[in-house]
């Protein structure tokens, strides 16, 4: 009798394990997706002001009024999407908690949930905690193309929801309008929810960001999840949100309340400041990431990795089988210890670990200097083989 059975079905996050090994070996950590540069100064100041101004008690469970108003205003301005801040928004402790709360609020044990694969590693445990059965649909290499036939076949009357993560972690794919429309059509045909994860919406190098909820017929069957972690480089603040029709929001808020009571009050005050930033801020964010991407793309190309250049988010999922026949976990640990660059083994993003056997994921949400130092170390990779 150690722990409940459900905990045995998922392992500790491999990403956090790789961070631990990276620290032991003083490796450059390109494993975990958190920035090593500062978040915007006005938001830091707003957080300090909120703390000094005694905004230190529970906020309203489903989010402070200023933050919900700021979210609603941002969706109107950016996506021409009206959102009722009183009845349709739940502010959560990160997109992570939003996803877990939405699963627990909308998915019953035994329901099927479609997940595009490779996938962000939290979706598996989310499905398990809700008792759902994940149904995987591949994004096919080399360009991570959505297999449309497999997608059509995956939908059935048992389908409760599909998780749509674009821009996509770990592949860097940005789904096209046509792909989003196909998903929308299938959701409508099979009476399924689209649960989106749009956490990288402002980190794109190609393609537009299509908000599923704005596609015809989708507002009433979409749960839009996003957050502040990536857009404002504040992964430790734990601020995210779910936008859903009022009836589903009521269910999501109940789950959220019992899980966490609410997100940190002073940080919500500062989050509202960020959500009001003008377009310049968001454009610069994408431009800065484009420059960081260039450094890593060059370094990995020179080292002989094979990969598709990401269209969005800040990861490169790269194949190393041309120069090593180790499996992904061995290779990632070897590279951390010998080369001094930490990555995430590709199998963490697949239900069948064999599918990620020759892949590792690099994160480039790092200062240019950090990426250049990693590039120098990667030049020595072949000497260590
Ligand atoms: C696809 C995706 N969703 C959600 C998250 C976590 O977001 P948050 O920090 O808001 O919980 C991540 C973090 O890496 C991610 O890659």
Provide keyphrases for this structure:
385 residues; alpha/beta; eight-stranded mixed β-sheet; three-stranded antiparallel β-sheet; 13 helices; 13 strands; binds pyridoxal-5'-phosphate
Distance between the termini: 44 Å
- Please give the count of helices: 13
As a percent range, the share of strand residues is 15-25%
Order of helices and strands: HEHHEHEHEEHEHEEEHHHEHEEEHH
Small molecules held by this entry: pyridoxal-5'-phosphate
* Structural class label: alpha/beta
- Rg value: 20 Å
- Mean pLDDT across every amino acid position: 96
Roughly how much helix do the residues carry, as a percent range? 40-55%
The poorly predicted ranges are none
Main-sheet strand order equals: 2-9-8-7-6-3-4-5
Q: What does the main sheet amount to?
A: 8 strands, mixed
Shape, per Cα inertia axes? globular
| Strand segment count | 13
Would you mind describing this structure in some detail?
There is one protein chain. By secondary structure, the protein is an alpha/beta fold. The chain has 13 helices and 13 strands. It has helices spanning 14-24, 41-52, 65-79, 94-106, 123-130, 148-154, 177-189, 246-260, 265-275, 279-303, 328-339, 368-379, 381-384; strands at 28-29, 89-92, 112-117, 133-140, 145-146, 159-165, 193-197, 222-227, 240-243, 315-319, 341-342, 344-345, 359-363. The chain has an eight-stranded mixed sheet with strand order 2-9-8-7-6-3-4-5, sandwiched between helices. A three-stranded antiparallel sheet has the order 10-13-12. It is globular, with a radius of gyration of 20 Å. It binds pyridoxal-5'-phosphate (PLP). Pyridoxal-5'-phosphate is lined by residues 33, 94-96, 120, 165, 169, 197, 199, 227, 229, 235, 240.
């Amino acid at each position: 009798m150690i722990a409940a059975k459900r905990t045995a079905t998922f392992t500790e996050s491999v990403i956090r394990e790789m961070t631990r090994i990276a620290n032991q070996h003083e490796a450059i950590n390109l494993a975990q997706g958190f920035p090593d540069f500062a978040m915007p100064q006005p938001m830091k100041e707003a957080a300090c002001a909120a703390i000094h101004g005694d905004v230190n008690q529970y906020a309203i469970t489903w989010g402070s009024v200023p933050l919900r108003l700021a979210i609603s205003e941002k969706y109107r301005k950016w996506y021409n999407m009206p959102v009722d801040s009183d009845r349709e928004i739940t502010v959560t402790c990160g997109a992570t908690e939003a996803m877990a709360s939405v699963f627990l609020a909308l998915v019953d044990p035994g329901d099927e949930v479609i997940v595009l694969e490779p996938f962000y590693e939290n979706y598996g445990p989310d499905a398990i905690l809700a008792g759902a059965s994940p149904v995987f649909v591949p994004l096919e290499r080399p360009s991570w193309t959505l297999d449309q036939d497999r997608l059509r076949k995956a939908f059935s009357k048992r389908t409760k929801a599909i998780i749509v993560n674009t821009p996509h972690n770990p592949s860097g794919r940005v789904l096209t309008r046509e792909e989003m429309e196909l998903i929308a059509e299938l959701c409508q045909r099979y009476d399924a929810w689209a649960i989106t994860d749009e956490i990288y919406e402002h980190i794109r190098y190609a393609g537009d960001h299509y908000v599923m909820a704005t596609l015809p017929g989708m507002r009433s069957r979409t749960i839009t999840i996003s957050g502040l972690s990536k857009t404002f480089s504040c992964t430790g603040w734990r601020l995210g949100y779910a936008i859903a029709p009022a009836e589903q929001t009521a269910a999501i808020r109940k789950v959220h309340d019992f899980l966490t009571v609410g997100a940190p009050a002073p940080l919500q005050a500062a989050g509202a400041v960020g959500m009001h930033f003008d377009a310049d801020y968001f454009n610069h964010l994408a431009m800065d990431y484009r420059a960081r991407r260039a450094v890593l793309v060059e370094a990995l190309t020179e080292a002989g990795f094979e990969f598709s250049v990401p269209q969005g988010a800040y990861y490169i999922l790269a194949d190393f089988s041309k120069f090593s026949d180790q499996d992904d976990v061995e290779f990632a640990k070897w590279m951390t210890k010998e080369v001094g660059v930490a990555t995430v083994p590709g199998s963490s993003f697949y239900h069948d670990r064999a599918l990620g056997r020759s892949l590792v994921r690099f994160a480039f949400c790092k200062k240019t200097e950090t990426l250049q130092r990693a590039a120098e170390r990667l030049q020595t990779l072949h000497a260590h083989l």
